[in-house]
Amino acid sequence: MANELRPCPCDIGDRFDYGGRGQEVQVEHIKAYVCKPPASTDKAVIVIHDIFGWQLPNTRYIADMLTTNGYIAICPDFFVGQEAWKLSNDWASFSDWLKTRDSGKIDKEVDVVLKYLREQCGAKKIGVVGFCWGGAAVQHLMLKNPHLKTGVSLYGVIRFFDDRSSLLHPTFFIFAEKDDVIPLEQVTLLEQKLKQNCKVDYEVKIYPGQTHGFVHRKREDINPQDKPYIDEGRKDMINWLNKYL
Predict the structure, then answer these.
(1) Of 69, 175, 227, 236, most Cβ neighbours within 10 A?
(2) Cβ contacts of residue 93 below 8 Å, gap of 6+?
(3) Degrees, nearest 5: CA angle 37-41-45
(4) CATH architecture label of 23-244
(5) Is 179 one of the catalytic residues?
(6) What pTM does this model have?
């Protein structure tokens, strides 16, 4: 487990130097980053950011990657104007910071985004992907929201949730073998509960040798042995969405 001084390992990895091909829009009370493919489509993916917020270039890079695979991608500000976490912040204050940004209390914002995607973008089939804090949010939505078709939770913090495992929609869980904040025992327990209670398709996959944030927070060129797993994680995410959207 992460120690008390470093309760979240999200500072592992890199902030990409990436500008984004989409645009920022106002969706009712929420700001959002939107990217659309050249050809019209009725398939969309909501991208849920990690603790570093909706403007993190890494997350926009993933949104744009989804667009190059034919999806409308939207990354809303689920902190709704509250400041994202900064590396200069004191980790001792992290728990208090997190209390005002609950990944299980985003339903109102998700409803607004779904309405926008349907009415303004013509989306009919909508999925969701999320990273860390956003991965936990995906778990919440897959248990609760009937309007989404599928989800991909990337290193979503399992302990943010109680013992519910009756997913409504097909869900893909991506975990890293060497994740300091999500021990493998928790992943094993999640798998056991899903096996007992889940009536929809799901998959739990652990990527060898990887650390928290590897799919969107690691540079492929820093550690060559990580590159195949970064690529595999991204490809698996796209393949899952393709299958269910």
Answers:
(1) 175
(2) none
(3) 75
(4) 3-Layer(aba) Sandwich (3.40)
(5) yes
(6) 0.93
